[in-house]
Structure prediction request, 297 residues.
Amino acid sequence: MEKITAVLVVTYNRVNLLKENIEALLNQTRNDLDIYIVDNASSDGTAELVEKYMENNSNIFYYNTDSNLGGAGGFSYGLRIIYRKNYRYCWIMDDDTVPMEKAYESLVNKAQILKDEFSFLCSYVKWTDGKLCRMNIPGVKRELFSKFDLLENHLLFVKTASFVSLFVNMDIAKRVGLPIKEFFIYGDDCEYTLRLSNVKNGYWDFDSVVIHKMPRNANVDIVTESIDRLDRHYYNVRNLTYIAKKYGWDGILVFLLRTIGDFIRVILLSKSCKLKRLAIICKGFFAGIIFNPKIEK
Prediction:
């Protein structure tokens, strides 16, 4: 059978979650896919786990980056490999994504309905309690109700989506280049899908369901973040500032107002490390103003 889809999973030291992910992928109702595991130099037995799966599954491929490139670097690394292949689609996801058994079948069906006239499709992402996962709600386009036939097929126009079950049209992906590896974490999926949807529409597929097994169902928020995870918010502020620059001065002004709002919320609501939180916001914002990474093809 011709393999039309490459699945790209980026993992780092979450071997038990990765095992669930691989099992779910192997149990999909369609099997015309290859699975690419990109390992950000895990030290928890990830390589050994994948090697065991590879013994009985010729469609699983393993790549070790030799250092932690972050999610952005891992996705860029893996897509660079897949871009050189002849797949029609690439299904991108984190290692804590558990697709329901018909998730992939629905994505392919929607691609056929759209006659491949799309840049990406994204799944309906639930948290472990069955509710919509707040971190993975796509950015819906204003014209979402302009085509009622799409609604009949359980599709909505979207302009951005997360890397938790993103189904990419490879013809479009090769035109826009790779995700920006320098993002490291946060915002890389938003920036990448913006580039994709600027070429052709993206869509939210309500029939393709995955579970995101993140620790809690909440958005990224420096106000309430735990102390041990604060430093990573520098990347979030920097990368979102970079994205805002794409909209010119209007974008920067809107994001500046949002940043001021975060400043005020930290002062009023944060229960610890207020000065550190404020410093991270400032450092990330000004770094984002001058941040100008190259988009690689």
Summary: Residues 248-269 form the longest helix (22 residues). The domain at 5-212 is CATH 3.90.550.10 (Spore Coat Polysaccharide Biosynthesis Protein SpsA; Chain A).
